[in-house]
Write a structure and sequence with these properties.
With about 170 residues, this protein is mainly beta. Helix content is about 15%, strand content about 65%. The two termini are about 45 Å apart.
Amino acid sequence: MVVRSFFLMSILTLFAVTAEAEQFSNPFNTGRIGIQSAISTGGNFGIGLEHFTENTEIGFSLSGKINNASNQTKTITPVIFGGFRKSLGEKTYFAYGLNWVNTLGRDNGIEINSSYNVAPYISLEQMLTMHVMLVGWIEPYNYGYVKKGGASTSTHTFFGSGGLGINYLF
């Protein structure tokens, strides 16, 4: 009886150690939520919330701009993104997906009636520790539409935007 109990405990311990080692070697097995702070082209600083798994990512961030000198610019910019991830090594990931950006408010004293940008992105993500991840991304193409002051414009930009971010993952 003692031998069977010892054997059973040994097998259960082996499974527990193996599961713990697997979770440590791949921190995205069950998915992780993170808080991101990022700076993008043009000096926009944003704060966001993301969810990462081994193969996918989705998130939301928010940035704003206020011109205190003239008080003519007050904008808020929500961003939604989602995409896929591919492991390049033990702690490095390549990711690609789609961004949707909307800007609301006043720009140089003119009310923004409608605004959106749609862009694919590519990024490199490096795990610095078990909880801290560095991210750099670029948008190879960006389509933008803005309607303000009764006039509307569409833009097509190649490699016109990117950024750096740091995530804390729970």
